[in-house]
Amino acid sequence: MIETRELRREFGGIRALAGVTLTIAQGERRAIIGPNGAGKTTLFNVLTGELAPTSGEVRLAGEDVTRLRPHELARRGVARMYQRNELFDPLPARDNVAIAVAAAAGPYRPFRAPPATELLMADELLERVGLGAQRAIPARALSHGERRQLELAVALAQRPRVLLLDEPTAGMSPTETGRITELIASLDRSLTLVIVEHDMDVVFRLAERITVLHEGRVIAEGTPAQVRGDTLVNEVYLGKVVA
Amino acid sequence: MPVAAVVAAGLLVAFPIWSAPWESSRYATGILRDMLVLAILALSLDLLVGSAGMPSLGHAAYFGAGAYAAAIAGQRLGSDDLLLGLGAAILVSALLAFVIGAVAVRAAGIFFLMLTLAFAQMVFAVAFQAADITGGSNGFSGVRRPMFLGLDFNGPDALFHLVAVVFLIVLLLVWRIRSSAYGRALIGLRENERRMRALGYDTTRLRLSAFVLAGAIAGVGGALQAYSIRFVSTNDVGVARSVEAFVSVLIGGASTLLGPVVGSVVVLFIERVLPSFNVAFAETVLGLVFIIFVLAGRQGIVGLARVAYARARG
């Protein structure tokens, strides 16, 4: 579903990505882990078209999408849950999701009210992420955990083929973390998930395969059991977290 | 509510008739007409400033382009057809907005503001220099009053009816736009452009479309202005007119339907009516009012009234 070949991205003299090659199958659930500064968020920014790579190639379902802009990738089915919520703060939760649902039909409908089906879909999604009772509350008035849930609902509203989750549980309480982890686990199996996460319990619960990034390179890749047993990974990352 | 709105609309259009017994009826009709013309300009500007979060300080360029287009098309083609005049105004102002917008919408915030101002100054310079076509500093006089379906809008009352009806059509149009999927997308643009892109909205195109739409509506206002005073001058494309519209939007309430209308009424009341009561320094009063709203009431009159109403209801 997603393939990258020798992705490089430099900022000034700093190499954020130093040749990342990945192959993620359709319906796969892949976690990308690594210490801060490993290049995880840069990788996401390249995969969504927000950053152009210095060199290398990105393919989506076989198509070369390396130079496409974010909205073009979104229309091809790439959605993203941002690490820092990107919401429409003064708008009610429902409108946040409705704008996302409406993206498929496009904005050029200037003289008609949005169809009721869009609002119904928005309500269903809010129900699903556990915000059914908060639909009329402006996004800015929601708690941090609720805002993360809304961020997920907005991404799901695009009916994506690929969902990039950038630290979905960041800043959440253990209860909230458990809830959103189960929610993500229950998503449609045909959806390809790529998860960046520091909470290893969440990673082991969700991921079928794990890629370990360190200083912009892939240093290990495999099943959770393989990665857990990798001495290099333990040295640069897991050792510090798990031990 | 709809009944009240229809009654209000009827009273507005018929203003010269029911105010006739009043000594100052003629004078008031003229002022009200100019308020409605400014309101059309302010309504179109608010689609950018309020809805889409695009603070344009050069919106008079499209207003003036519409005024010149209606006046020149009427003269050159020897026609006083209203549809020809309005059509020329919409076409020219939309085209101008497209050309300028194609560059300007790539910037945001203060840079967008500076670009729109700079481009409007260029349009002003062209209107000033191209004296063969526009009349330059002397202005373009002798604008023909329009005809439509055998109706002659030559008299001041008839012209008022025309301006009021077009104003109501524009108001209805803007109301529909604001409550449509398109209007909601503009608000999304204002609140979080990054998220809009990530959702699949081509935000550059969306901003350009809003710029052209607002420009075209401003052009309609310009045409009515040309018909009203039968004269077009470089003032109509000048920065003072852009500021007047901008101040109207902010005082009345940005991102509200009626805010720009209320603001236009307040601004022209201060500028044109206060001096006749021997209030000196009317412009200074306007400046003070503006400063007060910027410091203490950024939601504008309509926004503040809404808050007060919500509070009163609990």
Task: Present the secondary structure layout.
The complex is a heterodimer of chains A (about 240) and B (about 325).
Chain A: E1 2-11, E2 14-24, E3 29-33, H1 40-47, E4 55-60, E5 63-64, H2 70-75, E6 78-81, H3 93-102, H4 116-128, H5 144-156, E7 162-166, H6 174-185, E8 192-196, H7 200-206, E9 209-214, E10 217-222, H8 224-229, H9 231-242
Parallel strand pairs in A: 3-8, 3-9, 6-7, 7-8
Antiparallel strand pairs in A: 1-2, 1-4, 4-5, 9-10
Helix pairs in contact in A: 3-4, 3-5, 4-5
Chain B: H1 2-13, H2 15-18, H3 25-51, H4 60-76, H5 82-104, H6 109-129, H7 131-134, E1 140-141, E2 147-148, E3 151-152, H8 156-178, H9 181-191, H10 193-199, H11 203-229, E4 231-232, H12 239-252, H13 259-273, H14 282-296, H15 300-313
Antiparallel strand pairs in B: 1-4, 2-3
Task: Explain what you see.
By secondary structure, chain A is α/β, with parallel strands linked by helices. Chain A has two domains: 1-77 and 160-243, 3-Layer(aba) Sandwich (Rossmann fold), CATH 3.40.50.300; 87-157, no CATH class. Chain A has helices at residues 40-47, 70-75, 93-102, 116-128, 144-156, 174-185, 200-206, 224-229, 231-242, and strands at 2-11, 14-24, 29-33, 55-60, 63-64, 78-81, 162-166, 192-196, 209-214, 217-222. Chain A is globular. With 314 residues, chain B is mostly helical. Chain B has a domain at 27-238. In chain B, the strands form two sheets. In chain B, strands 1-4 form a two-stranded antiparallel ribbon. In chain B, strands 2-3 form a two-stranded antiparallel sheet. In chain B, a hairpin with a 2-residue loop joins strand 2 (147-148) and strand 3 (151-152). In chain B, helix 3 (25-51) packs antiparallel against helix 11. The chains are: A alpha/beta (243), B mainly alpha (314). Chain A binds chain B through residues 48, 50, 69-71, 74-75, 79-80, 82, 86-91, 95, 98-100, 102-114, 118, 154, 158, and chain B through 173, 176-177, 179-185, 187-188, 191-192, 194-203, 206, 209, 213.
